[in-house]
Amino acid sequence: MCRWLAYSGTPVLLETILYKPEHSLIDQSLHSRMGVETTNGDGFGVGWFGPEMRTPAIVREIGPAWSNRNLREIAGHVRSHLFFAHIRASTGSAVQQTNCHPFRHGRWMWMHNGAIAEFPRVRRDLALAVDPRLFRQIEGSTDSEMMFFLALTLGLEEDPPGAVARMAGLVEEVGHEHGVEYPLQMTVAVTDGRRLWAFRYSSQGDSRSLYYSTRVETLRSLHPGMSFLQEVSDDTRLIVSEPLGDLPGVWNKVPESSYGVVQPEGDALMPFTPQAA
Amino acid sequence: MCRWLAYSGTPVLLETILYKPEHSLIDQSLHSRMGVETTNGDGFGVGWFGPEMRTPAIVREIGPAWSNRNLREIAGHVRSHLFFAHIRASTGSAVQQTNCHPFRHGRWMWMHNGAIAEFPRVRRDLALAVDPRLFRQIEGSTDSEMMFFLALTLGLEEDPPGAVARMAGLVEEVGHEHGVEYPLQMTVAVTDGRRLWAFRYSSQGDSRSLYYSTRVETLRSLHPGMSFLQEVSDDTRLIVSEPLGDLPGVWNKVPESSYGVVQPEGDALMPFTPQAA
Amino acid sequence: MCRWLAYSGTPVLLETILYKPEHSLIDQSLHSRMGVETTNGDGFGVGWFGPEMRTPAIVREIGPAWSNRNLREIAGHVRSHLFFAHIRASTGSAVQQTNCHPFRHGRWMWMHNGAIAEFPRVRRDLALAVDPRLFRQIEGSTDSEMMFFLALTLGLEEDPPGAVARMAGLVEEVGHEHGVEYPLQMTVAVTDGRRLWAFRYSSQGDSRSLYYSTRVETLRSLHPGMSFLQEVSDDTRLIVSEPLGDLPGVWNKVPESSYGVVQPEGDALMPFTPQAA
Amino acid sequence: MCRWLAYSGTPVLLETILYKPEHSLIDQSLHSRMGVETTNGDGFGVGWFGPEMRTPAIVREIGPAWSNRNLREIAGHVRSHLFFAHIRASTGSAVQQTNCHPFRHGRWMWMHNGAIAEFPRVRRDLALAVDPRLFRQIEGSTDSEMMFFLALTLGLEEDPPGAVARMAGLVEEVGHEHGVEYPLQMTVAVTDGRRLWAFRYSSQGDSRSLYYSTRVETLRSLHPGMSFLQEVSDDTRLIVSEPLGDLPGVWNKVPESSYGVVQPEGDALMPFTPQAA
Predict the structure, then answer these.
(1) If contacts are CB pairs under 8 Å, which of residues 179-218 in chain D contact chain A?
(2) Which of B7, B39, C82, C138 has a CA between 20 and 30 Å from the CA of residue D13?
(3) In what residue span(s) does the Glutamine amidotransferase type-2 domain sit (chains A, B, C, D) (predicted)?
(4) pTM of the predicted model, to two decimals?
(5) Of chain B residues 23-52, which have a CB less than 8 A from chain C?
């Protein structure tokens, strides 16, 4: 399992979010509170959009995030208005760059926490369901990358929530064919550089934790003394596997079987149900 | 493309073969003479059998062999009577441990130099031909690993030359279906810990170089002063992508479209023809 | 801080000690119970003596031990009668191979848990105390390597306990000159391939944990059902940063300010006091 | 030995300089024409200044540049008006991040090609000459980093050309004391984020190659069809170990024993002579 965060809003140095909070993602790499594993040291990745960037830049490495100096350098010098960060705890698949999140396809970035249950048994059937033109781009061996390519096959670029629902439906169908009771466990973030979607779902109805930050306007009235809140725009939003600290009123659980979208035309939170692919 | 060597015979420190010859494999990692690339710095691997070892030990890394201190340590302290070593020059697939040779399945080790032409286009069809129970063990993204799993699917453990011939036939058939004129280019080494097979073949009839060492008995009479030759047994044999030096009479070309077997019951050199799978 | 173990006795596969115990060193890399940090993921090393080996082989890597496949391969295939293993939690110095333990000089291997307090402040003065001919061999930036080279300078190869006492005395003297109240914190293991010494000391009299295993003869009568104990010789001994499991009667604390020696002529436990260098 | 380039001028994506030229630095990592080694695969680094950056960002890795995906990502997405890039061919010191260039101290960046002759013999004496407050910041084991800390000790931040001259004088003095005939071989680049200095010198008067680009104004009249030249400002300048291609009129040798400065108040080329420290 893993931990991740997604940021959208006022351009900030990545370190503002990745390193500075009390229980930052980097802290979580050593001391996760809500993860299945307390240590997430099997690789990491950051992906960011900047001004004039048509595709996100993605930097991934196989060692732990906590000791990586290049991540520290990038976080201290790169600004972004929309970025993903992910720390990995492998549950068996190889520790290699192509298994690190986020994954990318054109403008699209994808990251995941969770698992396809008994992935080795269902991997081949899922691979067959990937569009043959996309199949050749699969480089790693994770369930997470497979989910991304299935979602792309099923229309991610036109209808993200629908494609993710069809991907989840397909994973459950194939799992059930192989006698797996609860085939899917996931929190997923995906973006095209403009909008950001985050999904929380598991076949068992007992999904990994996922939180979104309260509206900045509300936070300002709750915490009038926090200068950081004065500097960020009203539409700034964070979605995280676990809260970055204990500040009251900041973090809200994404409900079971639901998804949110962060976008210029207004954020929204909606129910999520897998669909037949 | 890549360079490799396979050793069978009197137990020696790996460094005797890997580092000490004039134009050793480590030297070839920086200055290959016959390879498609002069530099082979995209990972390496060694696999060895020792006394009482039922499976080979395999150490693989993603950096260049020439500067790797752990390889130097292992080579200077481990003895083996049967070992493989491989240095990699990636032609596009990721530089990651699971793409480094040798590959292993139980007692079996496999390494390869060459390529399946236009592998991204044919990869999916070849993947479908792998036994589903084996498919789940594929960890990397190379044509070389795919060839190994196809050969395993097609009977490698019972009939190595036949299985490799069927694998080659299948690769050519699938390639032709995709309009590839010359689908396969390969030199392959494979062992079960007792016997060692080496294949040289390409669809175009213009295969990568492969050499085997002259019988030790003959070498002793050619080079009576070489103490190394006094110390190794008569059945010691090396198969290499390119000669480890310029000593006259030592190296013999493996002919086009042929394979050799090194085994206790006597070595042999035979023609190789792909077969319908 | 770090965790380590030292083994001397019947030749075993390294994995017997490194991976198989309930709370093995590999488990400790993720879940140390007694270490200053619970995670020891900033590199690792193993060093072993085998038959006919005049120097130990040392394999060190900068990633976590728990996910390292090469360590798993080596541990599963290499036998040794005398070996060290170390997992590192950096307290600031760079995560690099030359900062991983064990360190080697000829036949001698050294590993350490602890710290020289305020090392950046005293580092230069300590470096000046190293024999100029040895100074050029310092490759890393840790206090641990510096302690090794100071001990070598002060006679480690002739009188290990005396040299370590003089090294500790020097570190305390230099520390006090710089106003450091408690300059030294250490558990150290050192071997020449025949004997093995382990030291536990700290200026404050509050040293990191260190344990040695009970005599095999006694363990056999305590745990008559354990087959492992039947297979190892009477002189087999383990020294560890923390117990490898909860089996009653197996582990004994090395007392404060003392050292032990494991050797063919009989093991011994003695008091340790720093000496003027 | 190594290869490097320094860029100052119109902000560009790093890839414009690092990857796109015919004989780019990345190409030189595999096929250097003028280097002592044709392969420079023992680590690399880039350091860049961007808008609002008070210190440069520095990303360094230990593998080859040619296969590094993170370097490709950064180069394709980061713009800079002043950056350094370096590819390393180790002549013996460890392949580790702290031995990769550029080195940094506050706003200052430093990179080097060449060597202090017989560095192991003179290393200790040179280390003693480093300001004790700076000594503690030395993390690696290269002559290049030592030269940087000596130059800092000798006034780099106040008088760069003078400090480098005194550093060179000291290296020669210490070398001669140890019986070294030609103690120093160097091309060095150093910047404070505003100005950029480049030095070419060797004790033997036979220095490694160094080139600077012709004034953009002149190049435009030489190559009126090159669109790149229309886009960059008149003060854009490149300094490189070897030309990035064969375009006539672009590259000029930095003369023996001289240095250049690139700065807003006008570039200049001057003689360089070591001075007594």
Answers:
(1) none
(2) B39
(3) 2-243
(4) 0.95
(5) 50
